[in-house]
Amino acid sequence: MIDLRSDTVTKPTPAMRKAMAEAEVGDDVWGDDPTVHRLQELAAAVVGKEAAIFVPSGTMGNLSAVLAHCHERGSEVIVGDESHIFQYEADGVSVLGGVGMHTVPTADNGELPLAALNKAVRADDQHCPRTSLVCIENTHNRCGGCVLSLEYMQSLKTWADDLGLPIHLDGARVFNAAVALGVDVKAITGLVTSVQFCLSKGLGAPVGSIVAGPKPFIHRVHRLRKMLGGGMRQVGVLAAPGLLSLTDMTKRLQQDHDNAWVLAKGLAACPHIDIRTDLVHTNIVCFDLRKSAPLSAKDFILVLQQRDVYVIPFRGGIRAVTHYDVTSKQCQKALEVILAVLNEPSQHIKLPGKCAMGNGTPLVGPEAPTVNGY
Ligand SMILES: Cc1ncc(COP(=O)(O)O)c(C=O)c1O
């Protein structure tokens, strides 16, 4: 099986499993877990922030970060309409935090144009919610893993500083962004107030994210993490692989980008495929099938599954993500399978009755989960 559904499917490396087995642990709710402390200290240093905290997921990281910034009632956060926070986090900031989301249109390259942001900022008026935060995403998942330029991020920071607004970065894949830009990750995180990044995606850890930012902010996130049920006990067993994510796995992301680029270039050469190769910057490859293709995107995904290549439906098209658990050879193989299917006359393609993910859940069709963002 060549699993290109997401980089979340990576399994812990042998070194991670060993580190988990040998981790020194304590009760982290009491602040006793030395491995968690090491992870948090290293994470803060790596992204150049005063403090960091380990949380169970990217979703909890973003939620607790937004609530920590928007701690006055009546707050509103500005988010992109294609952002993960708006699209895929169950409206947690509104449901659980009473924070309104003000969406602005996301440009194809993941940017939130300053003109749109200007319009979204509320007047200091009794009728209005209080604009308290801007959130951005880098790399941008629904924009095909593209990277926000440092120039754009600098202009956003200048704009936000003028208004006294903090910026939270959903940096689930911020190390992919740093590798693509050829910079230390601090060049990116230095332009925002706080960041959430995932250890459990391209960095290969089985669980967990980090929220980093100023000390008083992390103090508030700590309380919110407890409130949300994210205070964990002997969690050094999960922090231990996270340490390896930061020390080792960040160094190999270029390989995933190279694999994605080979895939994207190969797909672009197929007349039945529509792909914006200018937006393939990292490990995500999004594409559509043209009308000339011998089958629909939905059937295409099913046929690929039958041939052991797993991709997902995404924004009306298809998404493939490269990661630690797919080799260059497997990516090449996946490309060959994709091109072979699209080059077959439609009457030769046998549609499978039913195809399922590893756990038996149908990938497309009426019973398929709608979580197609991953
Ligand atoms: C951009 C982005 N932010 C946040 C998340 C949420 O992370 P988690 O699945 O750990 O909650 C994801 C997950 O895919 C993501 O792609």
Automatic annotation (TrEMBL):
Keywords: Pyridoxal phosphate. Its cofactor is pyridoxal 5'-phosphate. Residues 3-287 form the Aromatic amino acid beta-eliminating lyase/threonine aldolase domain. It comes from the Eukaryota. Pfam families: Beta_elim_lyase. Belongs to the threonine aldolase family. This is G12650 protein. It comes from Coccomyxa viridis. The lineage of its organism: Eukaryota, Viridiplantae, Chlorophyta, core chlorophytes, Trebouxiophyceae.
